[in-house]
Structures are given as structure tokens and as C-alpha cells.
Amino acid sequence: xxxxxxxxxxxxxxxxxxxxxxxxxxxxxxxxxxxxxxxxxxxxxxxxxxxxxxxxxxxxxxxxxxxxxxxxxxxxxxxxxxxxxxxxxxxxxxxxxxxxxxxxxxxxxxxxxxxxxxxxxxxxxxxxxxxxxxxxxxxxxxxxxxxxxxxxxxxxxxxxxxxxxxxxxxxxxxxxxxxxxxxxxxxxxxxxxxxxxxxxxxxxxxxxxxxxxxxxxxxxxxxxxxxxxxxxxxxxxxxxxxxxxxxxxxxxxxxxxxxxxxxxxxxxxxxxxxxxxxxxxxxxxxxxxxxxxxxxxxxxxxxxxxxxxxxxxxxxxxxxxxxxxxxxxxxxxxxxxxxxxxxxxxxxxxxxxxxxxxxxxxxxxxxxxxxxxxxxxxxxxxxxxxxxxxxxxxxxxxxxxxxxxxxxxxxxxxxxxxxxxxxxxxxxxxxxxxxxxxxxxxxxxxxxxx
Amino acid sequence: xxxxxxxxxxxxxxxxxxxxxxxxxxxxxxxxxxxxxxxxxxxxxxxxxxxxxxxxxxxxxxxxxxxxxxxxxxxxxxxxxxxxxxxxxxxxxxxxxxxxxxxxxxxxxxxxxxxxxxxxxxxxxxxxxxxxxxxxxxxxxxxxxxxxxxxxxxxxxxxxxx
Lengths: 450, 162
What we know:
Structural class of chain B: alpha+beta
Strand order of the largest sheet of chain B: 2-1-3-4
Strand content of chain B: 5-15%
Order of helices and strands of chain A: HHHHHEHHEHEHEHHEEEHEEHEHEHHHH
Shape of chain A: globular
Shape of chain B: elongated
Number of strands of chain B: 4
Strand content of chain A: 5-15%
Largest sheet of chain A: 5 strands, mixed
Radius of gyration of chain A: 22 Å
Oligomer: heterodimer
Largest interface: A-B, 68 and 57 residues
């Protein structure tokens, strides 16, 4: 066998993460099997019907830009990348009469620990992202777009390039799409290993061929984005939700979820569960049901804690988490964030100090170094948690961590500082006795034999 | 010198961007260089800079900012094992340790025969596939149990230059 053949044996098939049949009323992942990602398969599933509807092709009037945006607003679709900002509202911020070039950017730089949903979308249903972006471009009068893809998932980037070629060849991208007056050029770009580029302005810097250091906001990308031009940036899953909304209406999408939390959401469940994977379920599904879809806690152990929305979101103890439903409002009320929908499950054998040690190292490693509180503070957090974990902690360390976290939060250009500080504060808030035990006994409270 | 075939690959990337924004292709061009030469040398940076009309230092800033660019030669196969929290919870760390033992090197090192460089990596974005490992920046290997690691390492050794 050649080296390439050997390596390809270990390529993910998606069977475990996506084609397990354990979604609830899926829209984005519906009907996928790994081989049916091509244009003809997507069209057989009703693909590009929404774009045709918007452009008024094949019967019916074309939708106006305002109608498209109003439909997305009505759907209550909120940004799936982590911030949960209303998508229709974001689209309405774009200056539609702007005389120069405007850009549309898809943020597929999926690097938030725990998150792996966009990879499966682009790998197994890439055309849904292309169609969603084309509709968004039409609604905002944009003629050029880029999809910036996490560098580590290079084969997914290559898959997306293939899908773009198919769409161009079929006249679904390019000049005068399907014979209409609407033209849209879409290209794929890739990162190369920088978590910070998931931050939208760092992503724009990277797309301009620079270090990915976030920009000060304001000005916001809607007025000063890529190459200084008005730009709208949405997450992959957000764009992927759009075709269904256009086909079925905003109200229907809203009704799939719960008020203010429309539609379905893909949750990436990782860590201590029997069957880690991506699960597309209606917003507002109970956490208990999601856990069950993932096969429950691994090896029949007890649930200890959950990081509900990616590594940056504050950890929640099992007792609080079991009462939550999976939507923006419920998780926020419980004191955390839905974030990107990455659910990291920890069972009762896990040491919280050790878990935090790994996360704090990550944020130190990935701080871009631009703002002093984050550059220095993430180092302090990592070193202090490290010394607690390795038995060199001091009694005052928990207060020190809290003070360092406090000195970072709200004092940096982008949210990475807060993202590094929040897990520390939440871990100490909910599991302080474990930290104290570590300091006092120089060993772990959770016995190794558990 | 950049070969004609490499230049053709560069041109495809440059064509994605406005004519006055060739610099946008720097990330892709550097990854192409790395795929062809194994790493990004100062000389390669200079050539990419000339091609894109950038200052060499601006290219160097990119090489040094992004984790996946190799600033020095690495083994024929660069193995990046994710040990971030979701992977730590699912044998990511023991996967790294298994490879350290099997290859007889510590993370960050290259085997004496120049075949393998082993590195710890941050989130690869494949958390539900843990343990995961990225080989030479482009091949994601999922669910890497010790048996599969043996198969991969032994297989690549046997494949030689194939």
C-alpha cells in the first residue's frame, strides 16, 4: 500500500458522528449517508429550491431583498457560531446602497474545543452552505464571498472546493446565476492553526494575509470589514439553516424550536459519553434527552459536570445541567452560555483541577499576544492552576486566580480574554472544595481508582 | 526557485482574491510550499514574498503566527495528536504516550531515521472522533486506538517511498 492509502484508511466516515440516525427532526443533517454530498444528490433532496424561489425561477415572483431578510428575522434564527446574535438583524445592518464592493464571509474556523459540527456539514452536505450563502448574498446585494475553513480539517476544505466547482459548472455560482441578474462569486480559504481566527475580525485579518490579531470594534465589519469594505460574517451552521427557512417560511422554523430560539441546533457531544457525536435536535430539547441520544454517561458512571457550549463557556454541575433545556435562554439562565453548542461531558471520576489545567494551557497557548491583560493573564492562570494540580499550590491561589481572571475580563480587544477567564471562575465557583483539597493534601480529591 | 507547477498552484489561490489583494493568498502559498518541501525556510518566505509582492517580514509574521507552519525541517511524517480537554477525556493523552513509547521519542522530537516527528496539538476540530491525530497537516486520522496506531506507523514504515 502507498502511504496515502494507509492514511486514508483512518479517515472518518461520519458513521459514528453523523449518520447514526439519532437526530430529532433534522434539517441540515437530514438524509445524509456520506456518499450523497454531490450536487445531484443535494438537488434530489430539494436542494437549491430555496435559491430558485428567491430568484423567482421556475414559477412565482422573485423575493425582494427585504422579503428575504424579513423571513430570516421572523424565523428567529440566531448565530450558531457562539454569540447567538439574531441573523436577520445582522443582515439588516449591511448598507444595501453602498456603491463599492461588499463581502460575505462564512466562519468555518471551527476550533472551539468540543465543537465539530461544521466539519460534518461541509464534509457531508457542502451545498447547503453554498446555497445559504448565495441567498444571503442576494439579500444583502453582495457579489463576492469567502468561506474560511479551519486549517486542520484540510480534507474538508478540499471537499468544499469540489462542491464549489460543481455549483459553478451548474450555473449556481458565478455570473448571472441560473440566468438571473444576480451574480455571486464564492471561494474557499483555509487557516493554518490559530484558534484566534475564529474571532471574526481576526479571521478577516487572516483572510487579508496577515497575523490573525483581532481588530478593535467599532467599527464593526458591517461598515469596515474585509479590505475595509462592508462585510457580513456568519457561521457555517447559520448559513446552512437558511435554505430550509426560505422553503418553509420563518414561522415554521421558529415553531421547530421555542420562542426566541428558533429552529434546530446541532450539538457536538464529546467527553464521557458512550457515543460521542453530532446531534441535530430542536432548540429547547432537554439536556437529559440529548445525553440519552449520546448513549448516556460512559460506562454507566454518574454525571459530574457539563461544559455546555464549548470550552469557553462556564462549567455547570450535573444537578443544574439536568434541569436545563438546550437553548440560548435556558443555558444563560443557568449561568453559562449555549455558545457553539459543544457539550463536553465529565463523569464522576474526573478531577476538575486537571480539566481546568488543560483548558488554561490552551488559552495561554492561543492568546495572540496583542493585549497585555490576556497575554500575561492567561500565562498566570495556566501557571497557577498548574501548580495547584501538581501539588505546589498555595492557600491564597484560588483568590489569586479570581483576581487575575477579574483583571482580564472586559479589558481586552476581543473575547478570548473573557473566554480564558470564565472557565476558571466557574470551576472555582462550583468546585472550590476540590481546589482546596489539592492545595492542602497535594493530591487529588477524586481517588485514582474511581 | 519556485517550480512552474508550484507557480500554477499559487496562481489558482491568487485568482480567488481582488487583483490588488494578492497577499490574501499567502496562507495557502505557504502551505503549498510546506507540502512540497516539508517546511518553510527563510528562502521560501522570500520567494513567496516576491511572488505576492509582500515584504519578506510580512510573510515571516504569518509563518510564525500560525501553529501548523514548520519553521524547521521535520520528519517525513508529522504526527499531531490532540490532547485538548475533549480528547484528554477520551484517551488523547495516552495516545500521545503510546506513540512516544512506540517511536522511542518524546513529544516535539523526531525519530533518528527522520521518519516521524511527534507533536502535541491543540483542538483539531474533530472532538467526537477522539483520539484523533493529524498527519502532515492534511490527513485527519480518527478513533486512533493502539491497534490502529501500530497499523499506521508500521504501514508507513513499510511503505517507504511509495
